[in-house]
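Fold it.
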Amino acid sequence: MTGQGSTSGTNAHALPARGPAQPIGIFDSGVGGLSVLADLRRVLPHEDVLYLADSAHVPYGDRDRQDVQALTLAGVNWLREQGCKLVVIACNTACAFSLNPVREALDLPVVGLVPALKPAVHATRSGRVAVLATRITLDGDLLEGVVTEHARPNGVQVMKLWERRLVPLVEAGGAQSDEARALLHEVLTPALQAGVDALVLGCTHYPYLAPAIRAEFGDAFTLFDSGDGVARQTRRRLEAVNALNPAGTPGRVSVFTTGDPARVTPGVRQLLPDAPTVQHATVLPV
């Protein structure tokens, strides 16, 4: 699971030692991965966390494979250089293009996301499930593997939905806005009409849209996201190598952005009310 290769010589020297007391890193294209951070803090309350938002390049959904891979590798490597003992790529789009290349390139454990289609397949009563995600995620091999392994053998139909304006809306703090509800009504009404009863939120920004979805559609959809599964997988990976933080005190969170902290802070504070001061990170290509 963890690649044993090295990065370029400029990144391979003077790295901080990685022991149980070192932080977990979380990388996302923006602030959506804070939903995963919330699950990690619940499952692993004593772990310190460094969160890196690549706000200078968000959203990733319209970028090509080479661009997404380069940005993801650079971001994860920056967290590696800060001494993180494990990194979670909390971005479905980044995982669709970059998970395996990053694991092969860097010498640290990397946990990725797959849309939570498997539990949705087992929960649906109508036999119809929808996945709301970016086009890259919807067309990626990770999702197709779950469709092939779980949905098709169980006779479950999977409807793929995307709306490129949703991620920027969440980034701007508009997850509960009238605009969000209007977009969700537009994109999800066909799923409702098709008999979908289980909706997979296949982007880490989208759990923040759950209240708006429920306000617009009531209990028509059971919602699924990957946050809890990723948090538990992270705990299992750390337990397997005796790398859980032994401290009994609450873990500390640090938030960094490749963009302008002043522009990112309002969105972070809305989604994470107890967030610390957002700091700037200079992330160099690998």
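The first helix runs from residue 9 to 12.
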